[in-house]
User: What shape does this take?
Amino acid sequence: MKIKPIKTITQEYLDNLNNPETNKFLSTHGKPQTKTTVKKWIKDNKPYGVYVDNKLIGTIHISVIPVIGILVFKNYQRKGYGLEALKRVGQKKMLTGIDESNIASINLFEKAGFKPRKMWQL
Ligand SMILES: CC(C)(COP(=O)(O)OP(=O)(O)OC[C@H]1O[C@@H](n2cnc3c(N)ncnc32)[C@H](O)[C@@H]1OP(=O)(O)O)[C@@H](O)C(=O)NCCC(=O)NCCS
Assistant: This one.
């Protein structure tokens, strides 16, 4: 796995952002995403791409320091990529906001060592 700036907005990235299953807990939920909106989001939020075999399989970003957010595309979930990306990019004293019904994310952040406080905190 490589964590590096996003080179190209792939169709799979757009599909995942527009899929209610994967975007349910993202800030862009309910807002249709196009190359133009994603380009602006990338410019504003400076996410990293998560690359496996040189293929974009997800994104990880620190939205407002020190708040971290993560998306792993549907076809690549439950393979350990989210945990590995979080461990690589996460630093001490990071925060994340998680919807209490987002069990996958709660488990992921717990596994990475985050503790539930007022906000989930590493
Ligand atoms: C949350 C998310 C990033 C997890 O990424 P992932 O690469 O699938 O996670 P991993 O494979 O590294 O899993 C690590 C641990 O997280 C937990 N987990 C991941 N997906 C889970 C699921 N669907 N249900 C329950 N626990 C889950 C498990 O504890 C897992 O360890 P295990 O496989 O040994 O049981 C991914 O589901 C996703 O992108 N969801 C949509 C976007 C989102 O909700 N982002 C978070 C906003 S705060």
